[in-house]
Amino acid sequence: MKRLSLLTAQQRCLLRIAASGSFISQGKLNAGLPEWQKQYQQAQPFPHICLDNIFDPELLQHIDADFPDADNQHDWDTYRKENEWLKNATGRDFQMPFLTRHFLYALSSRSFLIWLEKLTGIKSLIPDTEFIGGGLHATLPGGKLGIHADFNKHQRNGLDRRLNLLLYLNNDWQESWGGALELWDKELTGCKQKIFPLFNRMVIFSTTDYSFHGHPQPLQCPDNVIRKSIALYYYTNGRPKEEVSASHLTNYQKV
Predict the structure, then answer these.
(1) CB-hemisphere CA count at 13 Å for 191?
(2) In the chain, helix, strand, coil percent, each to 5?
(3) Average of per-residue pLDDT across 86-114
(4) What is the overall mean pLDDT for the chain?
């Protein structure tokens, strides 16, 4: 058996996580829950919350280091459309590195779902273990994502999309580069919240036909920098009747 001193930094991180019993600290999640519940429900322009440094920073540094190269076409689905410009994405967990894959599984676990339900007030959440539209996202310099409301039904099982979770992996991100997540009001009069994609920053928000969001201005980051994030979506079987609408794809807006 290898001596501990001969293990790689990633192996030592994995052993430490194994000893703790979880990729996610339940104690840290629960500590702020009463206040976060209030923040979530009262947030404008729609229910959301931005939380920093919730996850193990060493774990996320390893996930960041393992992030697929932007120019490796085998690892990515590429989007080169007007509203999804220079964006790469993959939800294929079998291609993801070990730590990344199992961290996504932890974010789909029952214990994490219970925490999300308490935070948001949305009961009986169901994870998307196929990561359709989610998984790993990378936007290249000059890329953008137009303001939109998300597709509202899972394309395979017809469940109702209720929550988005975005976790950013961008060390030393500069505000001058742009790339902030913009949250717009229902009437599309303008951006009401702007959240920069900083390392170990998690954003959770409710998804309806009017939860308009995106980062619509082309990134101004250097050529060797990409905007990296993890995205997970959560569903329920049905939704409040005032939110029900016909099935639709991503609804981009001209703003």
Answers:
(1) 13
(2) 30, 30, 45
(3) 95
(4) 94
